[in-house]
Design brief:
The complex is a heterotrimer of chains A (about 140), B (about 120) and C (about 100). Chain A has four helices and five strands. Chain A has helices at about 25-35, 70-75, 85-90, 120-130; strands at about 10-15, 40-45, 80-85, 115-120, 130-135. The longest helix of chain A is centred in the N-terminal third of the chain and has 14 residues, at about 25-35. Chain A starts with 9 loop residues before the first strand and ends with a strand. A five-stranded parallel β-sheet of chain B has the order 4-3-2-1-5, with helices on both faces. In chain B, α2 (about 60-70) links the parallel β2 (about 35-40) and β3 (about 75). Chain B has a single domain (about 1-115), classed as Hypothetical Protein Ychn, Chain: A (3-Layer(aba) Sandwich), CATH 3.40.1260. Helices cover about 30% and strands about 20% of the residues of chain C. Chain C has four helices and five strands. Chain C has a five-stranded parallel β-sheet with strand order 4-3-2-1-5. The chains are: A alpha/beta (about 140), B alpha/beta (about 120), C alpha/beta (about 100). Chains in contact: A-B, A-C, B-C. Chains B and C meet through α1 and β5 of B and α4 of C.
């Protein structure tokens, strides 16, 4: 469902918890998709333990849970272009850009899309521009 | 000012819902409009009609119901409630989807999140 | 931006995490277990003092009283729920849950 709004609101979802140990990453992705479907300009930011949600090769089959692959694939469909990950949070957790998973494909070119690794200052500046921020 | 509140943690186990309640009361006292209150994740247990806390303790669900009776839009996430089998809400609380949180957030001037 | 922190600094890195994202003019509100950071003579005094040098730090009085915290790191301002609302009037909010 798409609701027509007079002005587009910027809404950020911050994901700060590790995946699989709790439901928050899954809910954060779902909320980002729905807020985008309601016409907001959504940014999705992975900070602190949230960066582990972007690690490639996650396999939840033995846990018997769904995993997030489908949700990541839907980000592009919902026009969520701004997917950021905090460089420092990755570094202190021993992650590099090579560890990141792709977050879908460009509909036109077919090119793989990746989260953008940024400094805390850029995230803080983007936070300041938001209409509101949902925490996960 | 229009303020939306999201509560993501259950009652009694954690202070989050108490903080949210005190914050909302103070916001109303200061003349603000509560655009909506959204119960998310384990937060849906806050409005469970079946809770029966000891009589000398605060009754969390009745508190929220009383706020709802004043006309404040209170929503429990239907997906979260179904997952938890928490489908009997106190009066003046609606079961609805995440779209309600999206609408509240977009329409309010501020969103304040409480949780664990 | 108003940053709310509700976690004990002795059990979580939330306050330190939040500190990396503070900008000039921002405000930190410590509530729930977050107020445990206000105490003097702890492992985390330097962290809190570092934050105080950059932005205003408030602590929720009801949470301090409940935890018998009376001696605060100098510079921390005590507020109540009305004060919390007042901070929300002035700032957008990020909850560091």
């Amino acid at each position: 469902m798409r609701t027509v709004l007079t002005d587009v609101k910027k809404i950020m979802c911050t994901v700060r918890r590790a995946p699989h140990g709790s439901i928050y990453v899954q809910e954060g992705l779902e909320a980002a998709l729905i807020v985008a479907a309601y016409g907001a300009e959504v940014s999705l930011v992975f900070m602190d333990d949230g960066v582990f949600a972007l690690k490639r090769g996650q396999d939840t089959q033995e846990l018997g849970t769904k995993g997030f692959a489908a949700a990541y694939g839907a980000l592009m469909d919902h026009d969520i272009q701004c997917v950021l990950v905090d460089r420092h949070a990755m570094a202190v957790r021993g992650m590099t850009e090579a560890d990141l998973l792709s977050i879908g494909q460009d509909a036109e070119t077919g090119e793989l899309r990746w989260p953008r690794v940024v400094e805390a200052g850029e995230i803080a500046a983007l936070m300041a521009e938001q209409h509101s921020i949902l925490s996960f | 000012m229009k303020i939306a509140v999201c509560i993501g943690e259950g009652p009694y186990n954690h202070e989050a819902a108490d903080s949210a309640y005190h914050f909302i009361r103070a916001a109303l006292d200061r003349g603000h409009q509560i655009q909506g209150i959204f119960f998310y994740h384990d937060g849906v247990h806050n409005v469970n009609a079946l809770m029966e806390p000891p009589q000398d303790e605060r009754h969390m669900a009745n508190r929220w119901s009383a706020l709802g009776a004043t006309g404040i839009h209170i929503v429990a996430c239907v997906t979260a409630a179904k997952r938890r089998g928490a489908m009997e809400q106190v009066a003046h609380v609606e079961l609805a989807g995440l779209g309600q949180l999206a609408m509240m957030t977009i329409q309010a001037d501020r969103l304040v999140c409480f949780g664990d | 931006m108003l940053h709310t922190v509700n976690k004990s600094p002795f059990q979580h890195t939330t306050l330190a995490d939040c500190a990396r994202f503070l900008r000039s003019g921002d405000v930190v509100l410590l509530l729930e277990d977050g107020v445990l950071a206000c105490q003097v003579g702890t492992l985390h005094v330097a962290l809190v003092e570092g934050i105080l040098q950059r932005v205003a730090v408030y602590a929720l009085g009801a949470d301090l009283k409940a935890r018998a915290i009376t001696e605060l790191i100098p510079g921390i301002q005590v507020t109540d729920y009305a004060g919390f609302v007042s901070l929300v009037e002035q700032h957008k909010v990020h909850a560091w849950l």
